[in-house]
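ARCHIVE CARD
Drawer: 12
Card no.: 0347
Subject: one protein chain, sequence and derived structure
Cross-reference: see card 0346
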Amino acid sequence: MKNKSFLSSLKYASKGIKTVFFDERNFRFDLIMCTLVVICSFIFPLLKWERCVVWALCALCLFAECTNSAIEALVDLASPSFHPLAGRAKDIAAGAALICAIFAAVIGLYIFIPYGVEFLKETGGFIHE
């Protein structure tokens, strides 16, 4: 059944976010990492496009984790007892979330490392020329 109003849609979406936050450890981990990334995106002088990229990657990782959790719930509903195809679907969904996280980390490091190196040079950190 369709939601009757935009506000009821927001209510159900909020319920889903609350559910994934409280029930899924990996979502909470991703959320902590995304929070740190967003904070770092303001500490370091990132270009606008770099900031947009790291924020979009954060959103992608959170989306992938939500999608993985939804697929796992549906598979559990459809196949309460073990079935190889159910396990395969869950593994593939988890793999998709992992791929997002790995690529986000690699791209994030590619963007942040030069700023970190420059910061250490300016502050007399561990890097000497």
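Annotation on reverse: The radius of gyration is 19 Å. Helices lie at 6-23, 25-43, 48-78, 84-122.
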